[in-house]
C-alpha cells in the first residue's frame, strides 16, 4: 500500500476518534435521554465540548475533498511523492486542528485548516507534475 493510502487509513482513524469523543461529550452535556431519543428538540453542545463537536463536523466537511483527491491521483496512476506528502500534511494538520479549535487563541485554527487544505492541493499537484 502506498504512503498516501496509509495517510487515508490514519485520517479514517482520526475521524473515528473524533466521532467517539464528540459522542461522549454530547452524552455528558445533553444527557442520555436526549441522545437516545428522537431529537425533535434541537440542542447544541456548548463550551469546550461544543468546540470538539464542531471540529469533528469540520473534518466531515473537508474529508470528501481529501478522499476525492486521493481517488483522482490513483485513478490517473499519478500518485507520487507529492500525494504522499500532501496526504500526511492533511492528517497532521487535522490532528493539530482539534486542540487548536478547542483551546488555542483566535487565529490558530484557520492556520491548521489552511495547512490541511494545502495538503489536498499538494495531492492534486501530482496530477500535473
Main sheet specs? none
Structural class: mainly alpha
The ordered H/E elements are HHHHH
The total count of strands amounts to: 0
Radius of gyration (CA) equals 17 Å
Any low-confidence stretches, pLDDT <50, length ≥5?
none
Average of pLDDT = 96
**Overall 3D shape:** elongated
How much helicity do the residues have? over 70%
User: How much of the residues is beta strand, in percent?
Assistant: under 5%
Straight-line N-to-C gap: 21 Å
Count of individual helical segments: 5
Properties at a glance:
129 residues, mainly alpha
Written account of the structure:
By secondary structure, the chain is mainly alpha-helical. Helices cover 80% and strands 0% of the residues. It has helices at 3-30, 32-36, 47-75, 81-103, 108-125. Helix 3 (47-75) packs antiparallel against helix 4 and helix 3 packs parallel to helix 5.
In a nutshell, what does this entry contain?
With 129 residues, the protein is mainly alpha-helical. Helices cover 80% and strands 0% of the residues. 29% of the residues are buried.
Topology of this structure?
Layout: H1 3-30, H2 32-36, H3 47-75, H4 81-103, H5 108-125
Amino acid at each position: 500500500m502506498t504512503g498516501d493510502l496509509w495517510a487515508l487509513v490514519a485520517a479514517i482513524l482520526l475521524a473515528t476518534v473524533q466521532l467517539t469523543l464528540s459522542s461522549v461529550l454530547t452524552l455528558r452535556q445533553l444527557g442520555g435521554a436526549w441522545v437516545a431519543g428522537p431529537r425533535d428538540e434541537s440542542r447544541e453542545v456548548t463550551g469546550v465540548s461544543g468546540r470538539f463537536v464542531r471540529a469533528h463536523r469540520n473534518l466531515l466537511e473537508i474529508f470528501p475533498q481529501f478522499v476525492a483527491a486521493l481517488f483522482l491521483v490513483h485513478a490517473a496512476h499519478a500518485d507520487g511523492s507529492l500525494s504522499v506528502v500532501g496526504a500526511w500534511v492533511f492528517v497532521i494538520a487535522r490532528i493539530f486542528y482539534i486542540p487548536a479549535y478547542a483551546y488555542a487563541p483566535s487565529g490558530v485554527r484557520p492556520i491548521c485548516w489552511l495547512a490541511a487544505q494545502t495538503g489536498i492541493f499538494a495531492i492534486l499537484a501530482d496530477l500535473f507534475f
